[in-house]
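Human: I would love a firmer grasp of how sequence relates to backbone shape in proteins. Could you go through the record with me and say what the backbone is doing? Here is the record:
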Amino acid sequence: MIAIFDYGAGNLRSVQNTLGELGCEYTLVRDAAGLDAASKMILPGVGHFGQMMRALDELQVRETLLTRISAGVPFLGICLGMQALFEKSEEAPEVSGLGLYPGAVQRFPEGARVPHMGWNELEVKPESRLLRNLKTRPYVYFAHSYYVPENSRAAATCTYELKYTAVLESGNVYGVQFHPEKSGAVGLRIVGNFLEI
């Protein structure tokens, strides 16, 4: 079962439409039991880092998410769903992220126009599983004011004021800073690649 986690503020309808277009069956889940039954997990995220993490804690799914990821269940975090994998964010420094990876999500530099909104190109590393069968520099749709710094898990980067991680791959964990569900045929291919993993 593919589980889309509904914490109350994610961009669920677009993600549901994407999975539907791919002919994929899925279930919306809101609790630990739903995650425990999942063969793959998708965490869409929009809004504020602090609100998202507080919602996950109120639903008591923080430990379940980490346990299922540790057990090898494929996970896809979209936008804020990828940022949640890190220890913290400058958007809400008092709130802890999932802490699966070290480091902090950062705000674009002073003077940058935020949010970074619209189409931008990815610089794809050839070994990426999530981005296979795509052009080297595909365009995807972004809407964010905070970013994950470039790191060793980056399967693709994007440059907006600076170069940052646009796609993360680490074992069974995948994250995208952009919105594949709003990125047309390229986005469909990316989600399809995740489903095939």
